[in-house]
Amino acid sequence: MVAILLFHTEMYYAGYDIIPYSFYVENALAMFFFLSGYLFYKDNGTIHPKQKIFSIAVNLIIPYFIFTTLIALPKALAHGEEINILTLASEILLGEASWFIAALIVAEIIFSLLLWITRGRHIILTPIIIILTALAFAIGNLENANYNTYNFWHINEALLALLFLYLGYTYHQFEKSLRLQPSALIPLAACLIILKYIEYRYEWKMVMGPIVVTSIPTFLCDCIISCLLLSSIFAHFIPQTSHLASRALSWTGSHCLVYYFICGGVPLLTAKIMTSIGLPYNDQYWRVALVFIIVYIVATAITWFIYRYLPFMVSIRKRK
Q: Which positions ≥6 away from 48 have C-beta within 8 Å?
């Protein structure tokens, strides 16, 4: 979530991604889906599709409609778009108001049904996921020249997200065997750096939303390695620390839904304010760092306020 905030800060403040998109953004998105799949797995192995889909409705679909409705008008005004209520309503109903949340909702519903139908048996589930992933790349790359083509509730991105949901689910199921030892982290990190160099050197596209991928094998290796690497790093080192940074990361992660809905608006408004008071980017990255700190603090304050005083927006009970 912090990575996504940094990306939007650069885009709105500097006008472009100073740190190349392929260096980290697709990895952050893949990790979101991976962790969603990780949380799917239950030790008892039971799958209750009705309960899971109800949970998706309460914790994702309802917040989607609440947040996208509330920010639709301010978002259009901030971007200087023509105000058309029918257009705004259409974007919300068709899942266009937040592509990532829409894709996550569809992916989780499909994955719930697949787990129930296959009873979680990998021998059946694996080929289905492979076929759907291939379909996602085929349709996504075919349509990337015209992103306005029919893509109801971002089904293309949802099919790709299924792969990472499945990987996260499987990783949790066999975590004791799959978790890397600290000695293996450096070699794996070196492999990831080599992949990043190749992508940057040849200017390969590695975009997940919409799907625009130059080299599919490189993209898959990149994202899978990064998910495995990050999972192992955090599993080994974060629980052993209690300093402010680790607590902040944990809190941000557990409240990431609200962060995601405001991860565009807060950087946009902050960038406009900083520019208007005479502090534009001007190729000085320390200013980006300053704006990013402000963005993170403001986004955290808004998120805390919503969870504390408006819990119905995220479908949780208010706690003392």
A: 116
